[in-house]
Amino acid sequence: MIEVSGLTVRYGGVAAVDGVSFTVERGEHVTLLGPSGCGKTTTLRAIAGLEQPSAGAIRIDGRTVYSAAERANVPAEKRGVSMVFQSYAVWPHMSVFDNVAYGLRVRRLPAAEIAREVDRALDLVQMQAYRSRSASLLSGGQQQRVALARAIAFSPSVVLFDEPLSNLDAKLRAEMRVELRELQRRLDITSVYVTHDQEEALAISDRVVVMNVGGIEQIGTPEQIYHRPKSRFVADFVGSANLIPGRVAGGDGQTIRFEAAGGLTLAATADRAVSGGEGTVAIRTAHIALAANGASGANAAAGTIRQRLFHGDFIQYVVDWPAGQLIVRRPPTDLYDEGAAVTVSFAAEHCVLLDG
Amino acid sequence: MSILLAAPQRRLWPRRLGLPGGQSVATTLLLVFCGGLVGYPIVFLVAESLNAGDAETFPPDAYGIDNYLNLIDDSRVLGNTAFVACVATVLAVALGFLIAWTLTRTRLPGRAGLERLMQLPYYLTPLVGALAWAILASPHSGFLNQLWHLVGGTGDLFNIYSPWGIAWVMALFEGTVAFVMISAAMKSMDPALEESSRVLGAGKWRTMLRITLPLVTPGVLGATVFVFAEMLGSFAAALVLGVPGRFFVITTTIWEATLSFPPDYGRAAAMGIALFAVMFVSLSVYRRIVRRGQYATITGKAFRPRPLEMGPLAWLLFALCCFYVLVAVALPLAALALTSFQRFATVILAQSQYTLANYQTALGFGAVNSALGNSLLLGVVVATCGVAVIAVLVWIIYRSRVRGANLIEYVVMFPQAVPRMVFGLGLLWAWLNIPIPIYGTLWLLGLAYFTVLLPLGVRTLAGVVLQIDRSLEECARVCGASWGHQLRTVTLPLMRPGILAAWLLLFIASVRELGVSIFLVGPKAQVIAPSIVSAWVSSSTELSAALALIQSAAVFIALVVLLRAARRYAGEIG
After folding, report:
1. Does residue A325 belong to the interface with chain B, where contact is any CB pair within 8 Å?
2. In the predicted model, is pLDDT for residue B372 greater than 60?
3. Are A180 and A116 in the same domain?
4. Which of A12, B116, B118, B390 has the most CB atoms within 10 Å of its CB?
5. Is residue B310 predicted with pLDDT exceeding 70?
6. pLDDT digits (tens, 9 = 90+) for B318-348
7. Is A320 domain-assigned?
8. Which pLDDT score is estimated for B309?
9. Res B9: pLDDT
């Protein structure tokens, strides 16, 4: 279990991480997601003990490893965490076995036990065949597996992942994603994972922490993050969404009436009690239905297809509708011509009022 | 208000809490050790230059700027120095630019081999070069002048004992730096910059004038300033070729001042400090140019530029390269070899008597032999200890976040800005006046070599450390290794090829060292380069030639190993 509270890391005068707090439960897989420069990697490195924070506290399994108030800072090698680096950091001057055995040897385990643990780890990542090969002769994917085996070999309580898949090609990345999730469930390890790839974050996490400019935007399960984005940033960065400005015209707690431009009144969902004021709602591009002939439904309005882009797995339409333009993604079977008149509709629960 | 309260607190405690003890301790020790070695002689030198009383008392009984005022009387020497340095710089940069351009941008037979040969003169050393050219081009007896007489010429074709001769030798044997720096600038230029000019319709010459030249200008300018600073502090050529004709530059004047009776250390120190000041300013200018010129080498990675087809001009340039190799490598070595086998360096070649006696003297028992042994011993010890210390030093400077790391870098790079001669003078004066009795022993020579070679070692190993991906080390720490364990199992093994290269470079630099050694040798601690000078001064040209060849042989052997190692390393990486 990891507790991060009020963590601040400064480089010179700039706060790269500014008062970040979150908790990772035992056995949970939490992902820090955000664009480059948002402080996610710095947060991860602070947990590992590779960055020197300037305020806040970090506790791992109940033990304080960093605390500004208690003036405590346990060095990286004494924290008992493990880490998979973006560059894999597989030592080229050692064999695969020596790489994986490193953490065990540092802990002065007997040779027989080291051999057993290394074999177990190599089996898990299916690299047993490369046991005695020089690490400099491995491909990118193989290095990735060795790095993984090395990180889990000494049975750490926590494993940290710093964009471990970002250097792999798309196909291998998708495969490794599945394997990582599988491995994580089997070993029941607590892990924190950093990525800028929103698909990856949604696919392999129990919970996602979305970060931006050194702070946390939203914490939630992948479904919550996707279906109920809290902020403009989350709606925009995770998945794709239409942001529609307007004002709240009243409502009853959960469902509200939202007045958009062009005299359009939408039924929308709010997480908090609001009664009025300016605001923005977000609608996922995939949550919008198109119909050919004046069909009615929730939030239905007439529109015209302005542009069609064929993407393979989906078709993206730009639709003119009373409140401006909408981006809509439909399955490739849902075919409309450019210039066609359509009816646009989406459920109230998919039209989410954002904070601020 | 809150800022005022928070600031000192933050400054005080991260040190206590963040850093593993080993690093802070090592940093402090190294800072004190290197700071002492570098700073101590300089402090003494400054104090002595301000000594207005008896030059040989320490601490001075009166302070004043008399020594500096007296420099005005030496304006002739200053003029000589400026003249020789300017001529040598212009010559070195012109040669360096043409050859660098030829070797990087044109298709020539044997380009790689030529490029390697170009660097040989530097390893040959200016001292050896000056000796060789004294044999080749002294009036009357020089081989080239003899040849001139043989084909019917009258008078002397060359007189190497002249300001021009000194500048010529300096340009050939110290100007190699210009070639190396300019070709580095040319290699780091993205060929796409030129290619896009060609694609947009500009011709070969227009591209060269409008694109290539402006892009390499900062590199050339930087090399010019750097080489000029080097030339100002140059000693060996002026010593061998200038002193016999009473032509003095600053460095040789310093040398004379310490030899006169009583030694005028005050005058020497003031001159040294003045030279240091000029050199320091030059190097600051150089750094500015290089930093500002970085647009030319944005990526800092080596490209393989597309060579140009030059037509007949290529052969002219090729001839120029061959000429350079001839005058800077082939002729000097041949002249030395011939002379080293002569019983007497005779006026007429046809009457020569050949003998191995010079080598017997050099390699036999006695002072000369022990000089050779001492040089090799010092080379091995300084290189070994130096590499060990500098490896840790470099790691702390470039990798740790220990406070004071920047300061260390400043301290260890400082000797680079001090002319070798001047540093030697400071060391002499400093260690004469300290109650630790190591003056005149190999210990002092060893410490002095370590001090003046710090910048070389740090620069070489810095490149190696910076190439190691930081996460390779961080991973070791996260796996549970302490700093020491991480250095031992990950950092140092990864640095191994670089460490070998640094070892050899330090070895070579030690074996050929002259500027510092010449002040610090004693009857019981002789080394080879000053021995060559004394053999020369005592008119034993044949013996000095033999010694020069032996020193060159030691350096070349190390060089061959270095190149082999570098090639194997490149093979491992590629």
Report:
1. no
2. yes
3. yes
4. B390
5. no
6. 888 889 989 999 999 998 888 888 776 655 6
7. yes
8. 67
9. 33
Per-residue b or e along B11-43, where b marks 16 or more CB atoms closer than 10 Å to that residue's CB: eeebeebbbbeebbebbeebbeebbebbebbbe
Task: Give ipTM to 2 decimals.
Answer: 0.83
Domain, as residue range, for A303: 240-353
pLDDT confidence of residue A185: 84
Q: Tell me the pTM.
A: 0.78
Residue B56, token pair as written in the block: 């040989």
Locate the chain A residue with the closest alpha carbon to B492: A93
Highest mean pLDDT among A292-306, B132-146, B509-523: B509-523
Q: Best interface-test mutation with A: which of B12, B479, B485 has the largest number of A CBs within 10 A?
A: B479
Instruction: Check if CATH label 2.40.30.60 holds for domain B363-574.
Output: no
Cα–Cα distance, B252 to B254 (Å, whole number): 5
- Domain extent listing, chain B: 68-351, 363-574
Q: What is the pLDDT of residues B425-455, one digit of tens each?
A: 888 888 888 777 888 889 999 999 999 999 8
CB A261 within 8 A of CB A322: yes
SS3 label, residue A55 = strand
Pick from A82, A87, A154: CB nearest B471: A87
Tell me B540's DSSP state. -
Residue range B68-351, CATH number: 1.10.3720.10
pLDDT of residue B438: 82
Residue B303 has a CB neighbour count (10 Å cut-off) of 15
In a domain, A213, yes or no: yes
Residues A218 and A264 occupy one common structural domain:
no
CATH number at residue A283: 2.40.50.140
What distance in Å separates residue B482's CA from the closest CA in chain A?
6
Using an 8 Å Cβ cutoff, are B490 and B476 in contact? Answer: yes
Tell me which residue in B478, B482, B490 faces A48 most closely, judged by beta carbons.
B478
Burial tier of B444 (Cβ tally within 10 Å: 0-12, 13-18, 19+):
buried
Does B299 have pLDDT greater than 50?
no
Whether residue B244 lies within 8 A of chain A, CB to CB, comes out as no
Give the list of residues 6+ apart from residue A131 with CB closer than 8 angstroms, or none: A95, A96, A97, A118, A119, A122
